[in-house]
Amino acid sequence: MKIEISLPDFPVEGGCQCGAVRYRLLGPPLAVYACHCKDCQRLSGAAFSMSMPIARERVGLMRGTLTAYDKAADSGRVVRMLGCGQCGIKVWNEPLSTPGMLVLKPGTLDDSSWARPVGNIWTKSRMPWVEIDGSLVNFEGQPPDRQPLYDAWDRAVAAGQTYGS
Ligand SMILES: [Zn+2]
Ligand SMILES: [Zn+2]
After folding, report:
1. Is the confidence at residue 1, as pLDDT, over 70?
2. What is the pLDDT of residue 75?
């Protein structure tokens, strides 16, 4: 299935559950994908979580204080999880291996309807009832790099622009 993504007009805003933390995205992300690893199942309390890598300079914290927790990922790399100190909702991760980038949790955007995953990672640990669309960019485990996901996102955004005009 061909995905078409219509980007919103930036800036867009998001925040935590209690409202203490508010942030703003100044421009589009690099991709959106779903992760089915056990850590993400615990983090979301659900079958998978969504990840939105984005350049750090495109994210601005408008209000509140973020609390950090350093977690060793399944990949062995350390991921700094940042969330609201009051309600505990995680808003983004900072992979210490790629300091120029954040991985935002798109469900915390005020309007996340445009943030559609173009792929799936860690499909080998997905919940058995989750069906993976084989036409997306999928990886059984951690992708060696995210470039195929970025490319799929760029194609989906280009397709959405064509569709909208
Ligand atoms: Zn909060
Ligand atoms: Zn994960």
Report:
1. no
2. 67
| 67, β-bridge pairs | 83
From the CA of 15, which ligand is nearest?
Answer: 1
Query: What domains can be seen in the chain, in order of their start residue?
Result: 12-126 (2.170.150.70)
**Structure-block tokens of residue 103:** 């991985």
Residue 151 CA to ligand 1 center (angstroms) comes to 33
* Ligand whose nearest atom lies closest to the CA of 82: 1
Q: Are strands 119-121 and 101-104 parallel, antiparallel or unpaired?
A: unpaired
CB neighbours (10 Å) of residue 132?
Answer: 13
pTM score above 0.85:
yes
> Which tokens in the block code for residue 138?
């999928």
Q: What is the pLDDT of residues 137-156, one digit of tens each?
A: 999 999 999 999 999 999 99
Of the listed ligands, the closest to the CA of 39 is 2
User: Ligand 2 mean position to 151 CA, how many Å?
Assistant: 20
Task: Give the per-residue pLDDT at 35.
Answer: 96
